Amino acid sequence: MKSLLFSTAILFSTMVPSCLESSIHNKKVMLQFEWKMAGHLPKNLDGSPSAGLAGAVVGISNDIFLVGGGSNFSGKLPWEGGKKQFYKEVFAFKREGDRLVLVKRGLILPYTLAYSANCTTGKGIVVAGGENENGTTDKVLLLNWNEASQNIEIGTLPDLPQSLSAGAVAVDGNTIYFAGGQNANGASNQLYKLNLEDTSKGWQVLPSLKKPVAYSVLYVQSNGKDKCLYLVGGRKMNIDSTSDLYNDVYQFNLKTNQWSQKASLPYALSAHTGLAFGENTLLVFSGDQGKTFHKTEDLLMQISKEKNATAKQLLIAEKNKLQENHPGFSHEVLAYNTVSDTWKAIDSIPFVGQVTTTALLWGNEVVIPCGEIRAGVRSADIIIGAIKSQ
Fold this sequence. Notes:
Blueprint: E1 12-24, E2 27-40, E3 54-61, E4 64-72, E5 85-86, E6 89-96, E7 99-108, E8 117-121, E9 124-128, E10 131-132, E11 135-136, E12 140-146, E13 151-157, E14 168-172, E15 175-179, E16 182-183, E17 186-187, E18 191-195, E19 204-206, E20 217-222, E21 227-236, E22 244-253, E23 258-261, E24 273-277, E25 281-285, H1 291-305, H2 309-324, E26 332-337, E27 342-348, E28 360-362, E29 365-369, E30 372-374, E31 377-378, E32 381-389
Helix pairs in contact: 1-2
């Protein structure tokens, strides 16, 4: 997925060499990442720090960075009885030198929204699906920043064929692709496309995914010959058993309209983020490997089946302790070469792992905003990884 974002204020930086070889214009270069803690969401109106956002709406329009919507637990944590809060406020920022300056706050989406699939395009920021306190939605928004009015213009695109949250989206020119996602019926195995130049036909159905999946990442990249979609990782929630977490990687050839399975991730991963880079590289940042997630699911199933009140309370206490001591998410950066069909761990992000967010590429910088950093806890931080080539 090719998107644009701006750089944010540099507060702290560290240099972490990587060992990624990428072919750019037929030349092999070694890449390095210089990671920076680059900015934060603004404080609340009462002066308290932002609790951060997971599943935020993210993108850039007319050189203005927009971030908002999303969800958090601003009061008690979920195992303490806290309720997930959904938001519709959007924050607009501009660059001033090395600083991120708030242009305006209080911009409002038409409804509260989190876990949408976001993609910056030449037509604006596409925000597809998602969920709020009322459930999942099939609505698709198109956001643009209006410099004259200092406001966001909110347009609509054709509804998705079904309401879906935690889907994956990628753009190729004027064509948007949407894969997977989930709703009350479970995870979806559908792949859709929408022509932004002619939306009259709505979302077109393409050959189904090999598996139903949510919380995956969709990329557009060349396999060395043809342009392809790549669907990486993800998970599927089950009713009577723990969720399936995938290390699967699938390629959809946009020329032949055929799926094929490629080399698997080194481990199962979901809720990660990533982007395509150069001519044949896919990058994966952070993600949930599912160990604590599966243990929590297993305890929840035991709790639901336990009839003895004392035993049930012991299980609840065990689950709460497990979540309170959540170790956080992966710091690892993985790279996949679409030509050699190989994966390599290339870097470790020197900050907390951020999941349920959207990574974007601005120039030679990877930008990763907000996200969840452990069970029930969100981040207000924005990090940048400047890509250096040698």
